[in-house]
Structures are given as C-alpha cells and as structure tokens.
Design goal:
Blueprint (H helix, E strand, L loop, with lengths): L1 H16 L11 H10 L2 H18 L5 H51 L3 E4 L5 E4 L1 H7 L3 H4 L20 H8 L3 E5 L2 E11 L9 E7 L1 H56 L6 H28 L7 E4 H7 L1 H11 L2 E6 L5 E4 L1 H18 L7 E8 L4 E8 L27 H11 L5 E4 L5 E8 L2 H5 L1
Parallel strand pairs: 7-9
Antiparallel strand pairs: 1-2, 1-5, 3-4, 4-5, 6-8, 9-10, 10-12, 11-12
Helix pairs in contact: 1-2, 1-3, 2-3, 2-4, 3-4, 8-9, 8-12, 11-12, 12-13
C-alpha cells in the first residue's frame, strides 16, 4: 500500500511538473525513498517496478535500448539510495538501543552509588565527591567535606600507601581504620581503586564499610565461645570426676577391707596390739573420708538434672555461626548449614545443646584438617512426629572400625594428647536430652555423628 500510494503521488507530481519541463524518472525517486523508509525491501522493489511501468506508459522513448538503459540506471540509483536509507534506519535503531542501555546503566550506577558509601579523592587526597550514604557513615554533610583532606576525618590515612603496588594495596585493604565522627569513633574498612589516565579532579575512588556491627557480632561470637568453653570445662570435670570415682572406689573399698582384717588380727594380740589397732583405725577412717570426698566432688560436678525448655534448632544453630565460622577459618574448612526451620521446635537446654554441637564441629574440623577439599555439613530435619534429627558430617578419614566400640568411653581417645572426654561429655548431654549419640559412615566419605531431639508437637500445631 505504501509503494502504490507513493508512486501514485509521484505520478501526479510528475504530471504537474510537465507544465515547466520534461521529467522522466526524477519525480519517482522520492516514491522509492518513501517505500524504503516506511516499508521494507519488497515494498521498495514494488515501488521501483511501478515507477518503471508508469514511466514507460507516460514517456515515449526513442528505442527499446534507450528505455532499458534508463530503467536500469533508475533501478541501480534508487536501490543504492534505498540501501542507504536502510543502513541509516539500522544505525538509528542501534543508536536508540544503545542510548536506552546507557541510560539504564546510568540509572543502575546512580542507584548503586546512592546505596553505597563511596568517596572520590583527587591526587592530593582531598574529597571531590561523596555519596549520601558516605555522608551518613562519616557523620558529615557533603558541603563540609568537599575540598577537605580525607585524613582529617580518618586517622592515619595516606593515599600514597594505596599506590605502592598490589601487595601494599591488599595489606591496606585488610587494615581497620578509625573514623572520627560526631559522638565518637567508628571502625572502617577501605577498598581503593584508581582512575586510569590523567584526571584533574578525580583520581581515587574509595569504597567504605562500617565494621561496627561486624565487630560486635565477632565479639558476641567470642563471648559465646568463652561461655561454651567454661561450660565445657565444668562438664569435662564432672565426667572426669565420675570416671575417677568409679575407678578409685574399688581400690579404696579393697584397702578398707584389708585394714579391717588387719585390725581384727591386731586386736587378737591383746594389749600389745591396741596401739597398732588405733593406728589402723585412723588409716581406715582416712580411706573412708577419701571415698566420701570423691563422692561429694562427683555429685558437685556431675550434670544436674535440668528441666528442658522449648527452643528452635535453627535459632540455636544460628547463634553458633560466629563460633563455627572461627573454627572453619582456623581449619580452612568449608562448613555448610542446612537446618529445616519450618518444624524445628524441640525440647532442649540451649547452652548444653550448643556445647555439644561445638564439640562435634570441632572434632569434624580436626578430622578433615590438611585436606584441600575439607567439607563439613550441619544438617537438621524432622524425621518423625516425635523426633528431630541433627547431624554433623565430614569428608575426613572416618572412624576406624576398632575404635567404634570405645569412642564414647571416658578417658579413651583416638587423638594423640587427647583426654578422651569430648565425645563422652557430648554423649552425656545428648542422653540428658532424651537422645542417643550415634556414629556411622557419612555420604561425604568421612564420619557422621547424629542424635535426635524430642519435638514440641503442640506448639508446632498451634
């Protein structure tokens, strides 16, 4: 339709121009251009064909050769013009798309800058630009910081320290800087990048991070770790006291029996044996006293019966992320945590549960130590309406078959220098929660320690 309409208009224009002179194919060129711009190649070809037919019908030619040559020239010229139109249209579309993409990217960059604390410095270390988030972090306004040296608010900052090479740059990026702001100071982490080439006003881009919350979280993790270690020592002492009481009661009882027999034999000697009998009686009383002391220490340090409360496994494990993270970093281990938090209300004593988990994770870290692909998985999931299972898996060497029978016994250890109380205490904690600590081969290739906790079904249903 575009081709037919354009050619029809061109024929009318050509007829009007005939009043002032003779025009052949020239009035038809705009019709072909219009078809090329509005339509496509087929519309353009149709416009060229209609223009040739109209021209042959309206203009008398000297010969067929003359008509053919003029038609061929018209096709060549108009097709080249159409190609130029198509190229310009394609360039215009690409330019429009590029412009839209650049505008979108600029909006993204502006959004990112608005949500990040970024400061731009010149070569002298003076502030040239800073984002609103940076103003909030530093506790200053943009007007008072523009043109001001950055080291006036961040103690010890020297831009030259960031330009001494990659090694120095990495070292500076790990440093914790102190920012002086109204109301006190704040710890900062600074990442620096430098603009290429010569820029009069912008030289370095600093990305700031407030480490206050990170340090508080780290401190909470250290405090929890200290508390768990304190509870661990008390539990270990209780386990050791129980083991020692069990081991020492028998020889003490045997010694007391021997002394009683000796006292009876001495009493048969009459007056000559009275002094020895009194001495033996004193020795017997001291042995009985030693046994009583051991029993009292055992009762003092043993795990008292606790009334288990209701808690969520996901919450208890989340609190341990800082401690687990420290153990993972120290052992260069990747720890994966997968706890079903939909149905995880259980009967548990929070600190005791966390202590048992930390001990199992610490043992797993020691088991995979030295492996390049060291992995530990902490898994929590409901296995029935009554029980919730917790597993700690690793890809270490596993537990030797000969050690499976003795691994939970007190004072029995598979580690050089170990006291053999860790898994014994952990088992005692698990049993106080109504569960059983078991060990088996892990799908990861190492060992998996698992136990069940009693679920609080009524609260879950509510």
């Amino acid at each position: 339709m575009v081709a037919i309409g354009a050619v029809a208009v061109a024929v009318l224009v050509r007829a009007a121009l005939e009043l002032v002179g003779q025009f052949y194919y020239l009035p038809m060129v705009p019709a072909v251009v219009a078809a090329a711009v509005v339509g496509g190649r087929r519309a353009t070809a149709l416009a060229i064909a209609l223009s040739i037919v109209a021209n042959l019908l309206l203009v008398a030619r000297v010969s067929v050769l003359d008509a053919a040559v003029n038609a061929a020239l018209f096709v060549l010229v108009t097709w080249l013009i159409a190609e130029l139109c198509w190229s310009l249209r394609a360039y215009r579309q690409r330019a429009g798309e590029l412009s839209r993409r650049l505008a979108h990217r600029e909006e993204m960059l502006e959004t990112i800058l608005a949500s990040m604390p970024v400061v731009v410095l010149d070569r002298d270390g003076r502030v040239r630009f800073l984002t609103p988030f940076a103003c909030t972090l530093l506790g200053v306004s943009e007007q008072e910081m523009i043109g001001r040296p950055f080291d006036s608010i961040v103690e010890g900052f020297d831009l030259a320290d960031f330009q001494t090479g990659r090694e120095a740059l990495a070292g500076e990026n790990d440093r914790v800087w102190t920012c002086r702001r109204p109301g006190g100071t704040a710890p900062l982490s600074i990442q620096a990048g430098f603009l290429p080439g010569e820029h009069a006003n912008s030289h370095a881009v600093l990305c700031l991070a407030d480490l206050t919350q990170a340090q508080l979280a780290d401190q909470r993790a250290r405090d929890l770790h200290t508390q768990l270690n304190r509870v661990w020592r008390l539990n270990s002492l209780g386990e050791m006291a129980a083991s020692l009481a069990h081991e020492l009661n028998q020889p003490l009882a045997a010694a007391t029996t021997y002394l009683e027999a000796s006292q009876m034999d001495v009493e048969k000697a009459g007056l000559m044996g009275e002094s020895a009998a009194r001495t033996i009686d004193l020795a017997k009383n001291q042995l009985l006293r030693a046994g009583s002391i051991i029993r009292r220490m055992r009762e003092l340090l043993a795990h008292e019966s606790r009334s288990l409360g209701v808690d969520r496994v996901s919450s208890m494990v989340t609190d341990l992320k800082g401690v687990v993270g420290m153990l993972a970093r120290n052992g260069a281990v990747q720890v994966e945590i997968s706890v079903d938090d939909a149905n995880d209300r259980v009967r548990a004593e929070r600190i005791q549960f966390q202590q048992a988990m930390v001990n199992l994770v610490r043992n797993a870290v020691e088991a995979v130590s030295g492996r390049t692909d060291a992995r530990i998985a902490i898994i929590g999931r409901p296995v029935s309406d009554e029980h919730y299972e917790v597993r700690v898996e690793d890809n270490g060497p596993g537990i030797p078959a000969k050690a499976l029978e003795t691994i939970f016994r007190p004072l029995m250890s598979t580690k050089s220098g170990g006291m053999g109380l860790g898994l014994s205490v952990t088992r005692t904690i698990v049993e106080s929660h109504g569960g059983v600590l078991t060990v088996e081969a892990s799908p990861l290739g190492g060992a998996v320690f698992s136990f069940n906790l009693l679920r609080e079904q009524e609260l879950e249903d509510a």
